[in-house]
């Protein structure tokens, strides 16, 4: 495959960084986008230190003007692949869920991907090539208590992807959503602590009784599995896979 310019939000840590490192190792140029400029710069330098090609950008995916200007800002590095990965979590029963926090989760994980797709899609269409990969979640297809905003946002990504898939049937642009069960990232580590508090369990009990209990495979999903799936989805062989929900859940939803 030719070298592609890949824009990854939330690319400075966790799943985003793991996918960035894997795709950089394939020879692609990575644009590490993160709300934290220093973190993005550090991640880009790590990729370059490993022999990859990368640059850093500070991006607030909720800032309409900032996102709308991205295609022009990157005129010398037109984006071939958009990976919508930025995300946060808040665990709370709905009665206690701060309204502004609920709105923030929806803005980052649903409105943000729509704005970014809107920004880069005209260029993809013009060049007759584009790949959009949303990082969803097992919570795109099932629910868990105390995560109403997160579940709503991740469910919404699926409907968004299906709609854009229909709108891009006339060109070589695809959009799909990766839906992993729990991946051991800093975000999930924080969730373990929050769930332990909310459910009055130890952190070990949260892992065994809540996170891994529904999974026949009883193991966390690795970032490598997600990176390899993304690697396939951006390839020529996946040109007719679009609007799809790619579930990596160790058999969870087979029940």
Automatic annotation (TrEMBL):
Family: Belongs to the short-chain dehydrogenases/reductases (SDR) family.
Record keywords, A-Z: Oxidoreductase
Listed GO MF terms: 3-hydroxybutyrate dehydrogenase activity
The enzyme's E.C. designation: 1.1.1.30
Top-level taxonomic group: Bacteria
Protein name: 3-hydroxybutyrate dehydrogenase
Organism: Alteromonas salexigens
Name of the top EC class for this enzyme: oxidoreductase
InterPro entries to which the protein is assigned, alphabetical: 3-OHbutyrate_DH, NAD(P)-bd_dom_sf, Sc_DH/Rdtase_CS, SDR, SDR_fam
């Amino acid at each position: 495959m030719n070298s592609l310019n890949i824009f990854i939000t939330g690319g400075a840590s966790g799943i985003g960084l793991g996918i960035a490192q894997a795709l950089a190792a394939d020879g692609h140029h990575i644009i590490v986008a993160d709300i934290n400029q220093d973190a993005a710069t550090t991640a880009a330098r790590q990729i370059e230190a490993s022999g990859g090609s990368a640059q850093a950008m500070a991006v607030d995916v909720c800032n309409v003007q900032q996102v709308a200007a991205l295609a022009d800002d990157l005129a010398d590095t037109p984006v071939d692949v958009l990976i919508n990965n930025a995300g946060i979590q808040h665990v709370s029963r709905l009665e206690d869920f701060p309204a502004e926090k609920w709105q923030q989760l929806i803005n980052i994980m649903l409105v943000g991907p729509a704005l970014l797709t809107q920004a880069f899609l005209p260029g993809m269409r013009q060049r007759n090539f584009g790949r959009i990969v949303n990082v969803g979640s097992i919570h795109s297809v099932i629910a868990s208590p105390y995560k109403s905003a997160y579940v709503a946002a991740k469910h919404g990504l699926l409907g968004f992807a299906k709609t854009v898939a229909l709108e891009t049937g006339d060109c070589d642009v695809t959009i799909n959503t990766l839906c992993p069960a729990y991946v051991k990232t800093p975000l999930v580590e924080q969730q373990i602590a929050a769930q332990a508090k909310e459910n009055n369990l130890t952190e070990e009990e949260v892992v065994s009784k809540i996170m891994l209990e529904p999974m026949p495979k009883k193991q966390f999903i690795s970032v490598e599995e997600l990176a390899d799936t993304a690697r396939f989805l951006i390839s020529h062989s996946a040109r007719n896979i679009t609007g799809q929900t790619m579930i990596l859940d160790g058999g969870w939803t087979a029940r």
